[in-house]
Amino acid sequence: MTTFQPDTVPGQPPPPDSVHPRDSAPASPTSVSRLNDTIRGFIEKWGSVWVEGEITSWNVRGGNVFGRLKDGSTDATISFRLWSSTRQRLADDLAVGDHVIACVKADYFPRSGDFTFAVSAMRHVGLGDQLEKLERLRVALRAEGLFDPARKRTLPFLPTVVGLITGEKSDAEKDVRRNAELRWPQVRFRTAYAAVQGDRCVPETIGALKALDADPEVDVIVIARGGGDPQTLLGFSDERLLRAVAAASTPVVSAIGHENDRPLLDDVADLRASTPTDAAKRVVPDVAEQRAIVAQLRSRLTMRLTQRVSTDIAHLEQLRSRPALRNPAGMLDQRAQQLWMQVSRGRDIIGRRWDAETRRAAELRATLRALSPASTLARGYAIAHLADGVIVRDAAQAPAGARLTVTVGRGSIGARSEGEIAEGDGASGDG
After folding, report:
1. CB neighbours of residue 68 within 10 Å
2. pLDDT recorded at residue 107
3. How far apart (Å, rounded) are the C-alpha atoms in residues 404 and 386?
4. Which of 169, 260, 300, 320 sits a CA distance of 20 to 30 A from 163?
5. Has domain 46-125 been given CATH number 2.40.50.140?
6. Topology of 130-285 in CATH?
7. Confidence at residue 369, expressed as pLDDT on a 0 to 100 scale
8. Do 225 and 166 contact (CB within 8 A), yes or no?
9. What beta strand segments (E) does 258-303 contain?
10. Cβ atoms 221, 252 nearer than 8 A
11. Which tens digits make up the pLDDT trace of 202-214?
12. pTM above 0.70, yes or no
């Protein structure tokens, strides 16, 4: 830009409007309008550029659109304006939350000092690109085990309090509450509202999740939204939200969209519900169904008890009809008679055995006495022992003068040998 150099009066400071911003000083400041003109002249040299981002604001005034685009990775934003003439050439379905690419040219308004970008073209980012990014994220999270069925927690049969994260005054909230209360009228909810699309969706949903997860009364958390196109559901495939759900200690139910909508939250959550209505059916039991089950169990129990009692009564009657139970004394009398006969027989056998053994003992005693040395000595025989106790069986064993002990039928006597006596020399007599 060519520097404007007006005529100046020597010795006087130049007028403020004549000073270029680069030449300004405390003594010679430039004016705001000249600064803004300089900035605008610099910005007008910029050309158009294509940018990619998410529409976070879309305000229509007089046919023109004033909005903002956000960078999904850094949260940096720019403001843009879309004139009505340009808007007529664009798609009619552009809205907050859409991921788009836009051809923009910088524009600066000297009067207000506002900086914005004029949009000359805008269109949705190809769905294929988005699906490719989501697929890469899906592969990475699956490799980390966030989709593993083993880590998913079982929902409680009847939660104390159901935590609900949804848009304020949304149809999803009405569907969840109405259907849950129809199934279990005493169900209690603790609702945390959050934006369900746009740039506030992820941070607000994470904040609501952390608040409900920290509540000790909340036993299950439902994240509900009433469906939408893939662009508006991108927040529920955001990695930050997915990791927050995986780290939660409370079971989480994903109820985003309709049957064909599958954000990554469905894979990370402990349970996927196809719709908010389906989520209500999953988190609380049906009181009518439970009453029917209780009635069925009561009927089966009554039938089983009746059958058991009837069977036991029949068995008891069968036992009572047996002869032993009809006349217990008769069985005892019969057994007593048998016992008496056995005792008598035993006594008889023992008596006969005793007599036989007594006779045998007497016979053995007589035989023993007949063979006993004492019986022999009683008949007049004697046994001579030497001093060392050896029995004399040969006369040569007792030479003359040997001391002998002679045992007779009653006692023993001492004797001295006079030597061997020749046969025929012995005294004859009784001994």
Report:
1. 18
2. 85
3. 5
4. 260
5. yes
6. Rossmann fold (3.40.50)
7. 77
8. yes
9. 271-272
10. yes
11. 999 999 999 999 9
12. no
